[in-house]
Amino acid sequence: MAGEKRFRVALFGFKKPDVHTYMEKLLKDINEKLKEKDEEIAALKEQNRELKLKYEELSGKASQIEEDRARIADVLIKAQEKAAMIIEEARAQAAEERRRIEALIEQEREKLVDLKQELRQLKAEVVDTLRRYEGQLSEIIQEEQY
Fold first, then answer.
1. For residue 56, what pLDDT is reported?
2. How many CB atoms are closer than 10 A to CB 47?
3. What dihedral angle (degrees, nearest 10) is formed by the CA atoms of 87, 92, 95, 96?
4. Which pLDDT tens digit goes with each residue over 39-65?
5. Up-side HSE of residue 88: CA atoms within 13 Å toward CB?
6. Which residues of 90-114 are buried (b: 16+ CB within 10 A; e: fewer)?
7. How many Cα atoms within 13 Å fall on the side-chain side of residue 26?
8. Cα-flanking dihedrals φ and ψ of residue 72, to 5°?
9. What is the C-alpha separation between 14 and 18, in angstroms, rounded?
10. What residues pair up with 14 in beta bridges, in sequence order?
């Protein structure tokens, strides 16, 4: 951690307000980090939604081009070929964009897994520290009884 917290000692252990304040600060820090990640995920989801809308729009345009081609088949053969090429490029771009967004989402999922792992480790460290303090307190109490 970024520095050990030292609590003032009371009659039967640490001063509860110190411990509560420290735990509240830890909880606040964790909540802030989670909120930041939630905001990042929300932004990525919004970006993904926008890209899906663009993809649907391009697909709709492609359908319109196909209908126009059927009506003007003999007159616009060259235009049809060019439109087909544009459609293919749009699909390739959309597919590439989708792969990119999926990779970003996967990265964010990995970050979330890492954060959860970090949180578990932090929790384990806190529990370990509390157990050590409890053991030390028990030793002190036993020494005072003798």
1. 93
2. 14
3. -140
4. 999 999 999 999 999 999 999 999 988
5. 6
6. beeebeebeeebeeeeeebeeeeee
7. 16
8. -115, 35
9. 8
10. 9
